[in-house]
Amino acid sequence: MLVPPASYDARLINDLFGIVYVLSFIIFILVEGLIVFSVIKFRRRRADETPNQVHGNTAAEIGWTVAPALVVGVVFGFAVDTLGRMTARGSPTMPLAHVHNINDKEALRRIEEAKQVDLVIEVVGRQWVWQYKYPGGNVTANETLIVPANKTIRLDMTTADVIHAWWMPAFGPMLYVNPGEVSYVWFNVPPGEYIGQCNVFCGVAHAQMISKVRALPEDEYNRWFQEQTAGVSGRVAVGDPQRGKDIFMNQNICWSCHTIDGTKAQGNVAPRSLTRFATYDTIAEVVPNTAENLRDWLHDPQAIKPGTAMPNLNLKPQEIEDLVAYLQTLR
After folding, report:
1. pLDDT-based confidence at residue 142 (cuts at 50, 70, 90)
2. Is residue 186 reached through a cis peptide bond, with omega within 30 degrees of 0 on the bond before it?
3. DSSP code of 84?
4. What is the pLDDT confidence band of residue 92, given thresholds at 50, 70 and 90?
5. All structural domains of the chain
6. φ, ψ for residue 122 (rounded to 5)?
7. Is 133 helix (H, G, I), strand (E, B) or coil?
8. Fewer Cβ atoms within 10 Å of its own Cβ: the N or the C terminal residue of the chain?
């Protein structure tokens, strides 16, 4: 693997890769050696020389049929053994990676019995961001998944739009996340920062759908979680346009869908440019363009305009205030 393995599963995959690599190298040397040997031994030495004509060689034909089959069988055996020992799918005796019905209670029971976990996080894939909801439903991150290090984490993943794929090379396997289904993955990693990529084409900003995971020591994670929880019910300050611009350009997916002249926001998904947003009469052509309506829109776009492509980014109250302040400067 090009990425150093951080989890047990990734190490298993790395070991399998090493076995396949060594076998491939041996076969390459053997085949190329036979080619060089044949070129030298059976080369033409005189202009009128004709090589001996051999029609069929039963031993040779059996050999070059059986030998590749044995190699494939060995690799297959190692692959099956590796898959059986991986923990990302629960356990060897109860493997379950996908549930085809989100409300399948029997499948959920099997999932919960498959492996003891320290933390369950709900994940929703959207064009083009991963959203993470922590226990209690009051902490959601759109950029980086924060987890306690050296703890067993389970991600319950679905998608709100198209097929996505969760792939963190340092964690091991890649997993498809399909609409209307739930996909599961388990991992346990040491402290550090890890990066991955959605591994299935999911639209024009597919390349921007980066997965980031930060594993913190348990005490640091607990402090972070308490701060995030407190921030939900804490007092909201007056919106700041600069903070709002930073959120728009750096912390969320706003810029990949929207256009604002003179900035990196050059997305072509949204139907209207935001360059002069503050001068528009309406928001999404359904409600008057007021600060209060804009807050409601950023809080839950679907409640204002059902079916809109604008996802619910689960913004915190302070983030909404800052974005409102920034958007109202766009004249």
Report:
1. low
2. no
3. H
4. very low
5. 8-43+58-85 (no CATH), 98-233 (2.60.40.420), 241-327 (2.60.40.420)
6. -85, 135
7. strand
8. C
